[in-house]
Amino acid sequence: MLTPEQEEKLAQFKEVTSFEDEQRDKIVRLLEHTSWNLDLAISRFFDGNINVPEPIPIEPPHTVEPDFDYTSFSSENVLLSDIMPKFPKAVPISDTWKFHGGLISDQIPHSTQVRRPFKTVIFVFMLIPRAFLLLGTGIANLLNWIFPGFLKALEGIKNPDEIPSEPKYQYIKQEEGDASKEASYLEDTQPPAKFEDYFRSVIGETSDLSIFSGEFNQALEYAKTDLKWLLIILVKSGTVSTTKFLKRVLNSPEFCRFIDDNDIVLWIGDVNYAEAFEVGKTYGVHTLPHISLAAKVSALSNTMPLMSIVHKSHHSHIQSGTPERICNRLKTFIDHYEPQLISQRYDKQEQDFARLIRQQQDEAYEASLRKDKERERMKEKLVQQELAKELFLKSNCLEIEDDPPLLKDNYTTIQFRNHQGLRVIQKFSQSSTLFDVYAFVDCKIHLREESEKKGITQEELLAEFKKDILQLPEIDLSKYDHYFEFELISPLPRYKLTPSKDICLKDVKELWPNGSVLIESLGDNSDSD
Fold first, then answer.
1. 215: helix, coil or strand?
2. What residue intervals traverse the membrane (predicted)?
């Protein structure tokens, strides 16, 4: 039974992820497994990690009544994944190293502090009676008085292969506009910040080793997203062990072939620089060179896979091992846990394929909707055009029949003839345009065709037009472009008139003060040049 607060979080989860109702039980177990952390649960949902094993109850022992209540230790809510061994998580490093320019805070975690012999001696003395401790401290102080700097020298002894207390070098940004130069360094002896350049300077040639060129967090995310193995190698420039490791192992054909054959994401960093130092601090590295193998797997195949450290190679194994032995040891872990990655890749391919199918279906559906909308729009447009054409013709037919008288010398007389020999003479005022002439001819043709079609006179047809106009919807004819299915030609010399609303008849010499026009249908085969 969920509390109101849990019900609210479940509703928020459903609003973000839109999970199916049949997945509700799985989602509730996922939220319980993540302590109702919505961000973590949502992230695992979209990663496809929603399968959480159901709680396995542990029956109380069938023994004599205990002195305490075992019910207080009920494991009904204990998950199998909580009691089984787990790999250390492979987590992203903090981005603070970028802002410090290679200088990290003096507060170094205990796991990365340098272990000094003198502190070990003091710890041993603490195990014996206080008197001996005071005696030992007194002897140490006496030696320090006789030999000044004795304690300081004793404390300063450290292993050159241990991780430093802080990065030794800073990144120096290249000045803008100077792309032809490499980045400068603080000292002449400072190794290149880019590991590939440092590697090449050590081995004296270009290596075939495939090294990830981005930041550590990018390599981690890439391996997690593409379900690849991530090999993390940390070295310390300037030490004998690192130089031998680079020449003996990393530059060996066996190691290069091992990386390529297993499609491994290889990230290598120098702890003398801030980013690799941050990696070492985050993952508790003590001695160098260091090798860690990571992947999105789990210690048990039936638990939720997370990006985890599967194996850490011991310093002594790296120092004494041959390239073949190092690769074989890593290959053992890869072969053991590779089936988990293969299964995840298969699931991911299915999810991607299903997502692609849904995307294609959605795109096809949206395209169909767009076509339907466009079809409806065109249909509506045609209806509006037909209504506008009807209104245009009927209103103009009524206007030409109510033609007012014209004053002498203020009009032109035009004779119209068609290919059937029919002739019409009409007077137009000097302010009439060529469009008005076209509209007159179109209306005459429309009147004749409609009267013949209905078997009524043109006067009866005009009476119907008056009634029809009152029933037509209001349409703005100023935005209507009428199409004329004929051309008007002045025969001598042959001149085609255009239906322009800007050209007045008094400005057309072929029609002023009188003219003759031929009506040629656009469907005719006659010459219209």
1. coil
2. 121-147
- Span 467-493, pLDDT tens digits: 888 887 777 777 788 888 888 888 877
Q: How far apart are the first and last CA of the chain?
A: 89
Q: Same structural domain for residues 91 and 27? A: no
Q: Are residues 60 and 109 in the same domain?
A: no
**Is residue 312 within 8 Å of 290, Cβ to Cβ?**
yes
Average confidence (pLDDT) over 193-210: 90
Please indicate, yes or no, whether residues 45 and 79 belong to a single structural domain of this protein: yes
Number of domains, the chain? 3
Note whether 104 and 216 are same-domain residues: yes
What is the distance between the alpha carbons of residues 451 and 186, in angstroms, rounded to a whole number? 101
Q: Which three-class secondary structure state does DSSP give residue 468?
A: helix
Q: What is the mean pLDDT of residues 68-77?
A: 42
Please name the residue ranges forming H helices in 189-228: 195-203, 216-226
Q: Note whether residue 374 is domain-resident.
A: no
CB atoms within 10 A of CB 388: 19
Lowest mean pLDDT among 20-29, 100-109, 234-243: 100-109
For the beta carbon of residue 41, count every other beta carbon within 10 angstroms: 23
Do both 104 and 74 map to the same domain? no
- In terms of average pLDDT, the best of 243-252, 301-310, 397-406 is 243-252
Pair 235, 312 in one domain = yes
Q: What is the pLDDT of residue 22?
A: 80
* pLDDT given at position 402: 66
- Examine residue 529 and state whether it is found in any structural domain, yes or no: no
Q: Is 121 a member of any domain?
A: no
Give the DSSP per-residue string, 314-366: -HHHHHH--HHHHHHHHHHHHHHHHHHHHHHHHHHHHHHHHHHHHHHHHHHHH
Tokens 């999970």 belong to: 19
pLDDT at residue 119 greater than cutoff 80: no
Q: What is the CATH number of the domain that holds 102?
A: 3.40.30.10
Specify whether 165 is located in the same domain as 257.
yes
The whole domain housing 202 covers 86-115+158-171+185-366
* Model pLDDT, residue 72: 42
Q: What is the mean pLDDT of the chain?
A: 79
- Which helix (H) or strand (E) segment holds residue 15: the answer is helix 4-17
Phi and psi at residue 226, in whole multiples of 5°?
-90, 5
Radius of gyration of the chain (CA): 46
